[in-house]
Amino acid sequence: MNWFYSENGAQKGPVDDATFRALVSNGTIHPDTLVWREGMTDWSPLSAAAPELAPAGAPPPRSAGAPPPLSTGAAPAVPAAAGAPIPEGTVPNHLVGAILSTLCSSVCCCLPGIPAIVYAAQVNGRLAAGDLEGARRASSNANVWMWIAFGIGIAVWAVNIASVLLSLPQIVQAAEEARAAAGG
């Protein structure tokens, strides 16, 4: 049976039983290292998943709070830092830019900015859940939609300003005719 283990927050494996036991023996895998193998529902510390392999006097297992494995039989994503949340700020959420681009594009309609705000709002939640890859995807999507909304907003503003500038001589002429007609 193949094992997967977490090393510095990265998933390692699969490794066979003999290799896994050697990694435990040489200290690469220690009692609180998160491990997973087919048949387990969550990542668990070695001391809980295979107590017979953990060195004597190992600390009691901690709750990993990891997601269940994929149905394909592949190992689930390793929770960051043994299930600890990833600090906010490690992945930009683009929320301010998303809001500003939505306001900029609100002249025509704010629809392109809405996905930017939705994706931006997902980043910190995914980081708190330990889903670094999901946070990076949400950040990337927020950035793309932010620039789309900003581009549409700038284009619409440019068209509006150009139309006002092009019609300005007609407005001035109409105002002068109205003044001349009123003044006699």
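the 2nd protein, sequnce then structure:
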Amino acid sequence: MEKEEQKVGGSSLEDSGERAEEEHGSEPDKDEEIPLEKMTKLQLLEKVKEVQDLADNNFDLYLRSQADIDNVRKRAQKDKTDLLKFSNESLIKQLLPVADSLEKAVAHSEEGNSIDALREGVELTLKALMDTLDNAGLEEVKSLGEPFDPNFHEAISKQEDSSVKPGTVIQELQKGYLLNERLIRPSMVIISKN
């Protein structure tokens, strides 16, 4: 019986407390979310202002992000353009001594010196050029005496030659080259037939 009295007493205190809050109009915690349907006009206006401020802030962040993306894109395009423009700089610097040697050979030939000296100068210049290209990754395609390979050779014609197997390269008209193991020019060759 005592428990019943306490319950009755407890519930009456709770009921009276709730009535007191309603009568005094106590405000709910700011952290509590009031449903929009139950908000007053002033509360709705404050909520709209909060949402508008948040939207303005997000839009500003969006615009800044777009500007950053555009700047990254422009910077990447400029870097790419500069890379293409100056990618051969080191190769050209290495080729300049070859051009100097050729100029000296031409000047030397005008002086009327011997043909043998001129030939030797051109051979040394050619060797310097090929060394420079080799350092840049250029490699000559092996052709003469090799079996014909359409991946590396371009056959211009066929000739009778019984001293080698059919389909063997017997003459190279123009050398082929690989750049870093990728074909940039096939060898122009003549192959044997029976």
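The CA atoms of residues 172 and 189 lie 5 Å apart. The first strand starts at residue 138 and ends at 140.
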